[in-house]
């Protein structure tokens, strides 16, 4: 209507930072208004049960804003926390939780928010087993779980990973459940409980390349030799559990560092705020992911785990010294 040309420019960039982590930035200009944005977001944990986001933005008129959020999902609910502030000294903090309580013939079970159609899972003596088709769902102490979303009027298939203690599952009961689980994974039984002339071959399973578990017993039921593969597997699992725990703690520490940076560095320049609120936690998390992921893939060398611990302590030391 005025006869003047209105030029607008929009640019955006997204950079992957490894598995399930990314950094994104944006630039826009419309007339005399310029806006810039920088953010980091992603998820972590064994089943990606943690998710986070850190964002900062500014314009050419001096307005600045920062926000951070953290969310966690597990078998008994979903939890959220967020914090934001801007250059006008507006602040906002929010906490949220959601879930459901389901009563059934096996008892009462806490769960994530459920839809119109959901499933109740019960497996006796299988506390801790993880439901494969359910997002971050595992069986509670009583062997119960709720799969929050299913397809109505259809057959919904689900299975549980045998991640619970082997000590609770002895004899035929454990072997039966282990067999069902391994067969669902495409493993083939070469022989099971077959009697031989000089002893009993208790259980052999093969996935075409790796023998998963082998144990030879005498007729007196005493073990002949030792199940080396089983022992090594248990040691590996301990290190993997420790690495997963450390990875979760690192994510929480990132969230804390971002919040501290936003508060303590509020009187610094925008570039310094970006350095401490976004870039520093990002580098911190990249180091964690590299070390922990490397350790998970090796599954035999704990040096990666201790290197991860040392790396985090150095980052904290740098943060303290820079004050």
Automatic annotation (TrEMBL):
<dbReference type="GO" id="GO:0003676">
    <property type="term" value="F:nucleic acid binding"/>
</dbReference>
<dbReference type="InterPro" id="IPR011856">
    <property type="entry name" value="tRNA_endonuc-like_dom_sf"/>
</dbReference>
<feature type="transmembrane region" description="Helical">
    <location>
        <begin position="274"/>
        <end position="292"/>
    </location>
</feature>
<dbReference type="InterPro" id="IPR000015">
    <property type="entry name" value="Fimb_usher"/>
</dbReference>
<dbReference type="InterPro" id="IPR042186">
    <property type="entry name" value="FimD_plug_dom"/>
</dbReference>
<feature type="transmembrane region" description="Helical">
    <location>
        <begin position="245"/>
        <end position="262"/>
    </location>
</feature>
<dbReference type="InterPro" id="IPR011335">
    <property type="entry name" value="Restrct_endonuc-II-like"/>
</dbReference>
<protein>
    <submittedName>
        <fullName>Fimbrial usher protein</fullName>
    </submittedName>
</protein>
<dbReference type="Pfam" id="PF02021">
    <property type="entry name" value="UPF0102"/>
</dbReference>
<dbReference type="GO" id="GO:0015473">
    <property type="term" value="F:fimbrial usher porin activity"/>
</dbReference>
<dbReference type="GO" id="GO:0009279">
    <property type="term" value="C:cell outer membrane"/>
</dbReference>
<dbReference type="InterPro" id="IPR003509">
    <property type="entry name" value="UPF0102_YraN-like"/>
</dbReference>
<dbReference type="Pfam" id="PF00577">
    <property type="entry name" value="Usher"/>
</dbReference>
<feature type="transmembrane region" description="Helical">
    <location>
        <begin position="304"/>
        <end position="322"/>
    </location>
</feature>
<keyword id="KW-0812">Transmembrane</keyword>
<dbReference type="GO" id="GO:0009297">
    <property type="term" value="P:pilus assembly"/>
</dbReference>
<keyword id="KW-1133">Transmembrane helix</keyword>
<comment type="similarity">
    <text>Belongs to the UPF0102 family.</text>
</comment>
<keyword id="KW-0472">Membrane</keyword>
């Amino acid at each position: 209507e005025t006869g003047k040309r209105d030029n607008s420019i929009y640019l955006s960039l997204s950079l992957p930072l490894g598995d399930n982590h990314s950094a994104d930035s944006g630039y826009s200009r419309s007339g005399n208004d310029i806006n810039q944005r920088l953010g980091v977001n992603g998820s972590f944990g064994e089943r990606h049960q943690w998710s986070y986001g850190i964002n900062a933005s500014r314009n050419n008129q001096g307005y600045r804003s920062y926000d951070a959020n953290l969310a966690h999902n597990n078998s008994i609910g979903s939890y959220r926390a967020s914090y934001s502030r801007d250059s006008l000294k507006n602040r906002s903090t929010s906490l949220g939780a959601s879930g459901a309580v389901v009563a059934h013939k096996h008892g009462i079970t806490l769960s994530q928010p459920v839809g119109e159609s959901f499933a109740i899972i019960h497996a006796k003596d299988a506390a801790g087993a993880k439901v494969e088709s359910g997002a971050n769902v595992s069986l509670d102490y009583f062997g119960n779980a709720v799969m929050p979303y299913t397809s109505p009027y259809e057959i919904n298939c689900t299975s549980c990973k045998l991640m619970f203690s082997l000590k609770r599952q002895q004899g035929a009961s454990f072997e039966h459940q282990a067999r069902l689980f391994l067969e669902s994974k495409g493993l083939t039984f070469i022989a099971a409980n077959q009697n031989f002339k000089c002893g009993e071959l208790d259980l052999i399973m093969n996935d075409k390349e790796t023998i998963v578990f082998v144990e030879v017993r005498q007729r007196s039921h005493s073990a002949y030799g030792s199940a080396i593969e089983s022992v090594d597997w248990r040691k590996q699992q301990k290190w993997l559990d420790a690495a997963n725990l450390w990875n979760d703690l690192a994510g929480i520490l990132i969230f804390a560092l971002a919040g501290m940076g936003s508060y303590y560095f509020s009187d610094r320049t925008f570039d310094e705020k970006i350095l401490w609120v976004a870039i520093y936690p990002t580098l911190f998390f990249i180091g964690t992911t590299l070390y922990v992921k490397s350790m998970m893939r090796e599954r035999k060398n704990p040096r990666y785990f201790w290197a991860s611990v040392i790396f985090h302590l150095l980052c904290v030391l740098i943060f303290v010294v820079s004050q």
